[in-house]
Amino acid sequence: MSPRWIFPVVVFSMVCGSISAKAATIEITMQNLVILPAEVTGKVGDTIKWINKDVFAHTATARSGDWDVAIPPNKTVSSVLKKAGVVDYYCRYHPNMKAMITVAP
Fold first, then answer.
1. With the CA atoms of 68, 69, 73 and 75 taken in that order, what torsion angle do they form, in degrees rounded to the nearest 10?
2. Cβ proximity of 21 and 49 under 8 Å
3. Each residue of 52-79: pLDDT tens digit?
4. Cα–Cα–Cα angle for 61, 21, 64, nearest 5°?
5. pTM
6. d(C-alpha 21, C-alpha 70), whole Å
7. C-beta separation of 24 from 44 below 8 A
């Protein structure tokens, strides 16, 4: 003799247990030869939305060599954080433009 409520509870727990936390979108703007914010935190799986408000191209180039994102003038480009750690990055065209992303697992 099993109660009728067990099946709905089991199904509910299976569905809710398989739902993962939603990835965040982090906006980073390049304008007037400055990266803002200069320091951000995120998690593996989060999306970085690179917004270039300048009239010339920029890059977001990891010093570790893990990634190199080209961002055309007045355009927005997205990339996904794939590896945990602290990433220092800069613009290859304007090396004085520097920033850091701390990526949690």
1. -170
2. no
3. 999 999 999 999 999 999 999 999 999 9
4. 20
5. 0.78
6. 29
7. no
Show the domains of the chain with their CATH numbers.
Answer: 22-104 (2.60.40.420)
> What are 83's two structure tokens?
């590896």
Q: How far is CA 73 from CA 51, 52, 65, 77, 105, in A?
A: 9, 6, 23, 11, 32
- pLDDT given at position 24: 95
The whole-angstrom separation of Cα 58 and Cα 89 is 12
Query: Which residue, 49, 53, 44, 55, is CA-closest to 81?
Result: 44
Nearest to 24, CA basis, from 76, 86, 80: 80
pLDDT band at 88 (very low <50, low <70, confident <90, very high): very high
The sign of the dihedral angle between the CA atoms of 90, 96, 97, 98 is positive
Specify which residues 77 forms β-bridges with.
50
Where does the pLDDT of residue 90 fall: very low under 50, low under 70, confident under 90, or very high at 90 and above?
very high
Average pLDDT over residues 30-34: 97
